[in-house]
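A further point concerns the way the authors explain their paired sequence and structure data. The central task, working out the structure tokens from the amino acid sequence alone, is never made concrete. I therefore recommend that a typical entry be quoted early in the introduction. An entry of this sort, consisting of the sequence and the corresponding backbone structure tokens, reads as follows:
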Amino acid sequence: MSDLDLLVLGSGVAGLSAAVRAATEHDLATGVLTKGSLDQATTRWAQGGVAAALSRNPEEIDLHLADTLAAGAGLCDLDAVRVLVDEGPRRVEDLLAMGAEFDRDERGELDLAREGGHSVARVVHAGVATGAEVERALVSAVRRTAVAIYEHAYALDLLVEDGRCVGVLATGAGGTNPVRARHVLLATGGAGQLFAVTTNPPEATGDGLAMALRAGVAVADAEFFQFHPTALALAAMPRPLLSEALRGHGALLRDIHGERFVDELLPRDVVSRAILARMLADGSEHVWLDATGLDHFAERFPTIHTDLARVGLDPSADWLPVAPAAHHQCGGVVTDLRGATTLPGLWAAGEVACTGVNGANRLASNSLLEGMVFGPRAVESIAAGEDGPEATGAMRSVLGFPDGPPEPDSLDIPGIVLDVDLPDVAAVGPTGTGASGDSGADRPAVEAAGLRAELQLMMSTHAGVTRSASGLAAARRTLEDLALRLRRAGPADLPEVAEVRNLLTAGAALVAAASARCESRGTHARSDHPEPEAGQRHRLVVVGSTPDQHTGRPVEEHE
């Protein structure tokens, strides 16, 4: 018998929102497993805010829906976006009830900001540390309600028995052991560490995505990875993020000659590509963000002001060097509108999931909201006795459409399944030895770090802001070589080795999908196919090398 009703993997907004609801509203025996401490997740790095039509005015809700669809460049699932914008205001109110404190104006009303891609101000903030405030409120609630918290524990792989997920194999202070549960919720965040320059913390290594792929679970939209346009161009990693709120309040982008070259409030993919094009044209390593015209900078943006002062920059006098950095994984493990994946017993929410909300590009400040909405929806379905997926949301691209294939002019997104050979790292096992017989305890970790750096440089070069067929082919060859070398690096239950294994798996999915999408759309830009193609308005579904465990059926096979 399973020890837990629900095991949540990850401690970001999606996982913690789900864990709180599972324990307090449905009396489910809930555990949370995270490879860091409970309050150490990508959520806490989120500077932006939470976008929601808090007035509950139907016209404002519809406007949020329209902005999200526009950012997604034709690949958002309409029903998923409708769930997000309809349920979002209630989830923000839940956070307020837990004690989260957001910025307010002189009248005591929530101070709403406007960000890129939004047609009106609808984003609530806690300074520029919204993620940290959301995390604080949720961590406190989880510590009071969860029956088991596994900190500094690393999930190596999903446990699958009789076609069902029944837990994970995890390593920690007590060695490598199974952690069993009737249901598992992947809430492990994204894979920003695929790239050499990222705003994500070191823990963002695509663990949940990779474990799902190795279990034959469907993943989609892997080619769409959002780069934030205004990361501070310093040597520090992760790159400090200069919040979109700065541009929302009037900060301007200038090239090395001091000229403006783009509308600062366009969606992130457009602004990132414009910055990269200007950098290449000028032979520069960055452009400038001019915030000298913003009043009361230190009071409005105290965290950014402190970070800038630490590196000797004064935003009232200095232009700030910025360049794009990998920021958010738009696709992920395919789910229906309730969070169910193609593997019974396995659920997903947050950045690791592909609900259909983001499409080809995430609208700014929808990420925290997505976790807050879809994490609890998964819990409600588990509590109601649900198990497998329904043909709703992004899942329709995998399971098909009840009434047949969608019409060409419909808003439904057809699916094409790619069978992808994942990097072969199976030879690495818990009993592996250090490379070349070296018995030094730190040798595997050192070798893994070197392989990780090579992978990040290669992905940034060939699969970053812009891509091409030749670059993606080179990326595939490098992934194969790195996998061969990883097999010799050390034991797979060493977290440093396991993280590189997961990055290789996530990278293979991204490269395969990017190679198959011969167009430019949203965050996916091909220099050899610079325009969107109407005939490629479909969702690319990646299935790993163990398709016998895949429970969905493809709409169309793709060679």
